[in-house]
Design goal:
It contains 8 helices and 6 strands; from the N terminus they run ααβαβααββαβαβα. The protein is α/β, with parallel strands linked by helices. The strands form 2 sheets. Strands 3-2-5-6 form a 4-stranded parallel β-sheet. A two-stranded antiparallel ribbon has the order 1-4. The radius of gyration is 17 Å and the shape is globular. The relative contact order is 0.17. The model has no long low-confidence stretch (mean pLDDT about 95).
């Protein structure tokens, strides 16, 4: 049984008992035994472990983990320290600097965002090395949709940051008017100049949280 270690355990306990999740476990067991799969098994649920349900201030949705060695560690867009920053993350940092004047650290580890209430959730939580989207349609989407639905039910305001079409496709799950949805193009170099740069989502998130009487996100990353 999965042990996340915070309030997600009780909220998701029924999900872990469902047939689709049992099938997903069988699939993952085979994949991890036969191929290099990312992230490491112990890091699959890092987003939930680092950001408790009650602590979520904002959600950034990604697609699936980075699929090259040493990158993925369970947080969308984040890479482990000592790993070169991918182009999408470089563009995220550029927007962070342009929006808030924050100079990012030399690494691409976003753990401090997660600890500050930003749920860095991929819609698919695992991937085979060198094969983007290889674990799509195996059951993860049911699981992460449930996470979004649970967050939608919360009375405390959350800002949902949806970059790119795959993330924006989740917006129908967010119906509670207390929450705010921010959308733009994806930070990928292929689309960043079509609406990602200049979206000011970091400051917009904090403006909304403060308007609702909430503590804003500290977007400054630890060195």
């Amino acid at each position: 049984m999965v042990n996340i270690g915070n309030d997600w355990d009780e909220l998701l306990q029924d999900e872990f008992k469902k047939r689709y999740y049992a099938d997903l476990r069988v699939f993952l067991k085979s994949e991890y035994e036969s191929f290099s799969v990312y992230p490491d098994m112990n890091n699959i649920f890092n987003a939930l472990k680092l950001t408790a349900y009650s602590a979520v201030k904002a959600v950034i949705l990604g697609q699936d983990p980075y699929h090259e060695p040493g990158q993925a560690h369970g947080l969308c867009f984040s890479v482990q320290q000592g790993t070169r920053k991918p182009p999408s993350l470089e563009n995220i940092f550029k927007e962070l600097t342009d929006d808030l004047g924050i100079i990012p650290p030399p690494h691409g580890d976003l753990t401090s965002w997660a600890k500050n209430g930003v749920l860095l959730l991929n819609t698919v939580l695992t991937v085979r090395q060198g094969a983007a989207n290889s674990h799509r349609n195996q059951g993860w989407e049911f699981f992460t949709d449930k996470i979004i639905q649970l967050l939608n039910e919360r009375e405390k305001p959350i800002v949902f940051i949806l970059w790119g079409m795959n993330a924006r496709n989740k917006s129908p799950l967010i119906t509670n008017p207390v929450h705010k949805i921010l959308t733009s193009a994806h930070p990928s170099p292929l689309s960043a100049y079509n609406g990602f740069f200049g979206n000011r989502h970091f400051s917009e998130t904090n403006i909304y949280l403060e308007e609702k009487g909430q503590v804003p996100v500290n977007w400054r990353l630890e060195d």
